[in-house]
DNA sequence: TATCGACATGTCAACTATGAAATGTCACTG
DNA sequence: CAGTGACATTTCATAGTTGACATGTCGATA
């Protein structure tokens, strides 16, 4: 399962509680790579602890348990990351699915959607660029490296989608009545 | 659920049997957007038919049932695509997760992974470019528009990841012992 | 000191998805 | 005409995910 490896990866950067990890998944990692809520995280941490891949290193206030990765956990993570990496693995992205299905819309609607995408990606990219420019740590302390790589990845992703949307707009005739390339079975 | 919308979208482009739809998910849509196997598709088609969003338009050999989208189905699809589109939606991508977790590796391993990514994305992009150059239909007949948009999306995706990997390689000191930027807690 | 919001974990039912296995048809080829 | 491979669907047990609900602590502030 990928969630377990995501947790190992985060803990490999710095020890954390389940609560903190849940927060982490609300950031870039949850936006681009893998989502998880606390309801899935806590039980998974328990399983990892059982398998000796992580361990509780600190009991804090409010029943807080700080987990850290073990040597065995690092080994497991490393072998997973360096292994096959072969074919796809899980892929599930609702936003991208929407983009793919654009061709199912009539040209006018399709253009509307693409324009929305172009705008949103431009905004998102600008915002991210702003955060990065501020030199502001894009990823708290110990996860600085992670945050940088992730932020740059996100940035390039936004730019790529933005450019794609502009290109796609160019492919679809402005005049809904037009003939041209992208043959689409219109609405009824 | 997104699967239902994915099916509506594909059927909006052309009628198809569950078997054909399953094949479709092995292509670009499954690679970038949404995975599904036939075991999930058949029951979902039945549910959609029950809700009147699709209907069987033809009974072929071997019990084949060709489905087509209905007017109600088109409406549902359109409103889903044009609606909010707001916050994320489901995101789950094992490959991207691997990229994010690279920072958890020691520099030497990280560089190895990044090099692998750079190579693979270059290959994939080249292959796709080849297919597109051949003018070969990148998406059979009725789905030509879909295939084009998807192929171009994939191409830009590969290029973006490729460039990112090269950038990331530049961030990680070649000398495993080096100091520099991306602070990483090394292997034990 | 009462209250509020962030911190922190947990349970559970419902839903979704995946893999293995089964079953049978049809077209083609040797 | 037997065999093979693509076509085509189904069932089912297991595993993974989500949302709703529950519970309680701690620190700051009004």
How would you sum up this structure, described in words?
Two copies of one chain form a homodimer. Chain A has 188 residues and is mainly alpha-helical. Chain A contains eight helices and four strands. A three-stranded antiparallel β-sheet of chain A has the order 1-3-2. The termini of chain A are far apart. About 4% of the residues of chain A have low confidence. Chains A and B meet through helix 1, helix 3, helix 5, strand 4 and helix 6 of A and helix 1, helix 3, helix 5, strand 4 and helix 6 of B. Chain A binds a DNA duplex (30 and 30 nucleotides) through helix 2 and helix 4.
How is this fold's topology laid out?
Two copies of one chain form a homodimer.
Chain A: H1 2-13, E1 16-17, H2 18-24, H3 28-33, H4 38-50, E2 54-59, E3 65-69, H5 71-82, E4 91-93, H6 94-101, H7 107-133, H8 144-171
Helix pairs in contact in A: 1-5, 2-4, 7-8
The structure holds a DNA duplex (30 and 30 nucleotides).
